[in-house]
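User: Continuing from earlier, I have the next pair ready.

Assistant: Great, send them over.

User: Here they are, in order.

Assistant: Folding the first of the pair now:
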Amino acid sequence: MIRTVKPKNARAKRALEKRESKLVENTKQALFVPGQTSNKLLHDVMVDLSALKKPDIKRFNKKNDIHPFEDPEPLEFFSEKNDASLLVLSTSSKKRKNNLTFVRTFGYKIYDMIELLIAENYKLLNDFRKRTFTVGLKPMFSFQGSAFETHPVYKQIKSLFLDFFRGQTTDLQDVAGLQHVISISIQGDFQEGEPLPNVLFRVYKLRTYKSEQGGKTLPRVELDEVGPRLDFKIGRVRTPSPEMEKEAHKRAKQLDVKTKKNVEIDTMGDKLGRIHMGKQDLNKLQTRKMKGLKSKFDQVDDDEEDYLNDSEEDLQGSMSEHEDTFGEDFVTADEIDENQPASKKQRRA
């Protein structure tokens, strides 16, 4: 194994810090390793699988004499040296022809392994002659068959492929990034005493067309197979130990978000709070105290003040006096003409 040495400079220190355990781990890297007995078909298949996994891949060109089920230490060495937790080893023999061994590691130790043998009816990317995949886009998955939820081997295969093509974890979602689908289904039914049914690996690209019903908002979607098309026969399987599985599934407490009562966070990341209040007495509402609103600063006219100070009896008495004397000083129109002096025209006449 690699010796742990003290870093001699800042660059080596940063490199070691990147490999330390983190609360949020980096995107898993996949390492494609050709075995000593690998052939051209296995090389082309690994190239096609790496095209789906890009850019989080590393691929070796030199063949390596590795037997993972007998001696897993060389793969653990490559995993630690290249900081890769996903490995694919290609080997071929008379007993296990065109074999791909998918390996997952935890803490640079073998977590689980499964052998998938390629059947004869395969078809690669070059055979389809379609456009390649956009680098960095994550595929959608479709698992067809109830065995992926019940059978332990097929549950391990489902977990392996989801982990292998997971890519970068993000909360951002864009419909334009949904461009291809990986369909994994089971061929045939289970029969006692017979080998497990094959696993069919298919890749489709989404084609959108204008729909007569939905228009642009709800387009018509069609699937176009772009490859690779692979039929896998299940070989040897190695499952993780209960202790390692428990340790790998352990979640840091810092990542658990503590729920607060009446506090929610929407899809945009805004925090929303809900407040429950009883009935409020507005008479006891504390308003702003202003100096000019005090009673001693009220300005009242003298007449209005006298009117307000008069009692009701005085007001009634004054009203009766005005009623008795009403009409005494009344003057008629004839009296006004008699008392008025004559104008100049009247004097001349």
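And the other member of the pair:
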Amino acid sequence: MDEWDLPQWKKEVESLKYQLAYKREMSSKTIPDEDGIPEDPFLNPELMKNNPWVEKGKCIIL
């Protein structure tokens, strides 16, 4: 890191404290929660067809 001044360090410490306090769940508990996949518009291909925000085409290199 470059030389930081006191306000930058305080902001960094606040960010790390926030991340530390964030409640996380174990993967072993969240992976079995696949019951909602049929209703999820981002995971179900049939529902993705009706979603206007899903990209329709492939990437094109110019």
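Worth noting for the second one:
The chain has a mean pLDDT of 81. Helices lie at 6-21, 27-30, 45-48.
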